[in-house]
């Protein structure tokens, strides 16, 4: 049994401008908003052209701007708390373990706060980060 909400849209950065990924998401009914990693050229597919046009529109800009108020602040906080800025390695494969460990630690702290009736976002005191 699945519980929760279905993901309808992913707001991704240009690093996720990957045709295979976008196709898999589309097959599952998920819209991907990711800027094109390369400029539109003569061989650019119509789907990529349509995505670029939408992202350049007022509606697309407003939708994509949600990243700045939702996920990006969380990433900045996690990178700061776990001293991951800059990451000691480059590339998705090499960076993934660092990011996953930080996210696991973050979630464990949030769970600990929940179990102890503390505000969920009080992560710094537990880490004694500053």
Protein structure class: mainly alpha
Succession of helices and strands: EHEHHHHHH
The overall average pLDDT, rounded, is 86
Task: Determine the fraction of residues in helical runs and give it as a percent range.
Answer: 40-55%
Number of domains: 2
- What characteristic shape results from the CA principal axes? elongated
The largest sheet is:
2 strands, parallel
Distance separating the two termini: 42 Å
Instruction: Pick out the low-confidence regions.
Output: none
**Given the structure, what is the number of helices?**
7
Radius of gyration: 18 Å
Strand-residue fraction?
under 5%
Q: Output the strand order for the largest sheet.
A: 1-2
Question: Got a strand count?
Answer: 2
Model description:
- This protein is mostly helical and 130 residues long.
- The chain has two domains: 9-67, no CATH class; 71-127, no CATH class.
- The protein has seven helices and two strands, in the order βαβαααααα.
- Strands 1-2 form a two-stranded parallel ribbon.
- The longest helix has 24 residues, at 92-115.
- The protein is elongated and about 55 Å long.
- The N and C termini lie far apart (42 Å).
- The mean pLDDT is 86.
């Amino acid at each position: 049994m699945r519980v929760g909400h279905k993901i309808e849209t992913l707001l991704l950065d240009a690093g996720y401008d990957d045709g295979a990924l976008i196709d898999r998401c589309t097959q599952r009914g998920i819209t991907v908003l990711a800027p094109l990693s390369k400029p539109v050229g003569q061989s650019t597919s119509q789907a990529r052209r349509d995505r670029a046009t939408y992202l350049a529109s007022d509606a697309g800009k407003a939708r994509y701007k949600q990243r700045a108020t939702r996920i990006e602040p969380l990433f900045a906080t996690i990178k700061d708390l776990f001293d991951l800025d800059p990451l000691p390695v480059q590339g998705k494969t090499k960076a993934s373990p660092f990011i996953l460990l930080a996210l696991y630690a973050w979630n464990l702290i949030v769970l600990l706060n929940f179990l102890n009736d503390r505000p969920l976002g009080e992560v710094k005191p537990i880490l004694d980060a500053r």
